[in-house]
Amino acid sequence: MPKILLVEDNEMNRDMLSRRLQKKGYTVVTAQDGEKGYSLARSEAPDLILMDISLPAMDGWEVTRLLKANALTRHIPIIALTAHAMVSDREKALGIGCDDYDTKPVDFARLSEKIESLLVEKKVS
Amino acid sequence: MILQNLSIKRKLTLITMLTSSIALILSSVSFLIYDLVSFRNLLRQDLMTQAEIIGYNSAGAMEFKDEPAATATLSALTAKEDIVTAVLYKPDGKIFAHYFRGNAAFSGFLPIHLQKKGTRFEGGYLEVFQEVTLNGEHVGTLFLQSDMRQWSLRAKRYANILIIFVLVSGLFALFVSSKLQGLISKPILHLEDTMRMVSSNKNYAVRAVKTYGDEIGRLIDGFNTMLSEIQQRDTALQSTNGELKTRTQELEEEVFQRKQAQEELLKAKHAAEEANRAKSTFLANMSHELRTPLNAIIGYSEMLEEETRDSGKVENVQDLRKIQGAGKHLLSLINDVLDLSKIEAGKMGLHLENFDVSQVIEEMVTTLQPAAAKNGNSIQVHLADSVNTMRADITKVRQILFNLLSNACKFTDHGTVSVDVDQIKLENRDWIQFQVRDTGIGISAKQKENLFQEFAQADASIARKYGGTGLGLAITHRFVQLMKGQICVESEPGQGAAFTVRLPAQLVIETTEAAQSDSASKIPAAPSETKAGMETILVIDDDPSVRDLMSRFLSKLDFHVVAAANGEEGLRLAKQVDPLLITLDVVMPECDGWTVLNKLKSDSKLADIPVIMVTIVDNEAMGLDMGASNYLIKPVDRDRLAVLVEKHRVARTSITDINSVPLSYVAESPASRKTVGARVPKTRRN
Description:
The complex is a heterodimer. Chain A has five helices and five strands; from the N terminus they run E-H-E-H-E-H-E-H-E-H. Chain A is of the alpha/beta class. In chain A, strands 2-1-3-4-5 form a five-stranded parallel sheet, sandwiched between helices. In chain A, strand 1, helix 1 (about 10-25) and strand 2 (about 25-30) form a beta-alpha-beta unit. Chain B is about 55% helix and about 15% strand. Chain B has a five-stranded antiparallel sheet. The model of chain B is unreliable at about 510-530 and about 655-685 (pLDDT under 50). Classes of the chains: A alpha/beta, B alpha/beta.
């Protein structure tokens, strides 16, 4: 079963998204802040990361940058999630190395599609 | 010379005296000379007569060689005081008899050349020769010598009289002239006094008093005329000066007031900008805060709905759907507000892509089918064959169509909503034209006026009946503008409405924003284990959280970070650590960022350190003017900051050979940057 790392500071959203992903059959690992997310990404080696951008202290941009700069974690697809639906956020997310981007509140069906397609891409490559 | 500088009074006196004295002396002397000459002639005549008499008396004695008789005759001369010598010579030139006054020793002088007859003046003496004859026969010569005592006495007396006369008349002349010179000198001295008064007191009101009608009187007249003219001009000048002073004061006051007004305006402008920024930040934050719980509401209700359906409790599904619907509605409202604020703040960007127009239309119709069905409306689509693909921001095109269609469905009851899409050519450009018509309640002319304004629904009753924020058309309008299109409406109350939107078929944006964000996104993170040779960055910011964030961020980019909590500390640390660059906040207590920047740039040791302004104050022009290298506005775009600090790092390491290391080179390859950094010896700026 593909393993997904969910980095999200809001407890309710973390619980809700992880349960829905689990129902879809994914193994879900959660982190509530950037530092934890970074270390779990290295230790758990997830197949995909859902990264909330607005995290306290070390934010999602930073974690993503670190992960993409590290040879061990560079290959893990990252979907950035942000509540600020700015176009610049989207540009920034893709520019910084995120593989996809979605806005909150999450349209679960749309997000599932994005997860699936990234996992398939990864498998192919 | 001395005479020339005498006062006019003295001069006049002197001139008068000299003139009169000279005239007096000349006339007296000439008279004296005339008198003395006449007197001398008289003396000579007298002496000659005496000589004749003595000669006559002595002739017998000579003839008879009677010397005593001759001596007696000569002795008679004792009565004549002025005759000093009398000598009788024999025809052979030898002395026969003689007489010397007062028995004074005969000086031995005797005339060498005996003359027969004649007179001469010799050495202050009058000498007379007289031939002594007897019966016509020459018997000897008489010589008489007079010391002209009478003449000398007379001359002396005359001289004394003359001197006394001259002195007395001189004194008298002095008295008279000193009395009379006032006639000329007084008015001149008065004029001089007046002039001195005018020039020393600057009082042009005084006048010289005219005494006589002569040249000096005319001079005083002229002087007075000149004075009055000067006075007039002076008065005019003074009044002009006064006016000028008043005007200058007025001007100064005006300048001051304007300056104040300008400052106030500037303050107001800053305040307004600040407020606007605060508003945008607030909206962005609020939308984030609102979305987070909404995310949970929608997510949990969706999850519950699935679970409920799975467990067969169908009766709860509808209620859960209502929760979802309300949540999504709330979300759309938040999105609208956020969209609008983003547009207002100029932060709404465009994401251009090519897409199939028919596909978008189809999507939208499908999405809105339920809304149409709710009011018993049918949707008809007419897509012209020429319509194919377009290049635009698909999300915004979708939203424009969604807004127009949902409005049409909302305001139409059991009617038709039609969508016409066509490609047209206007002004040599291709446009995609969307037309959405309905057969609904329509819009009055008055309502049309505010149709595209924010928060302006046709009227309040509509809001109650139909709901909505009144933002839909305003956003639609702004989106159309953003994509350089046009929107217009045709409608009559009760006759339905037709909205027409024209968008460029191939939208092109000239701005470089996209390019910038591209390059910014390519920054290498490049965390590195090596700490040696790390460059230092000085962060000056009074906000501890900013200092913390900047420190973390810059440390990750391999910099040594030194932070200062205020301007003074910043300046001190700048001197101490000689950083690669300085990031500087503007709004700080006491010593603000502008002051710090100014001090940095005016210190020759610090002036070369690049300064990146990091601030919420939007005044890039001022920052760059004052010498800042770059200007970033908070919240800081970290990628941009990363690119900037990299550029400065490369600029420093390769300053000796800057041409061989293009800046872009670094951004693309962290590995090669490292090599460059190691190879090129570290160069100090100074």
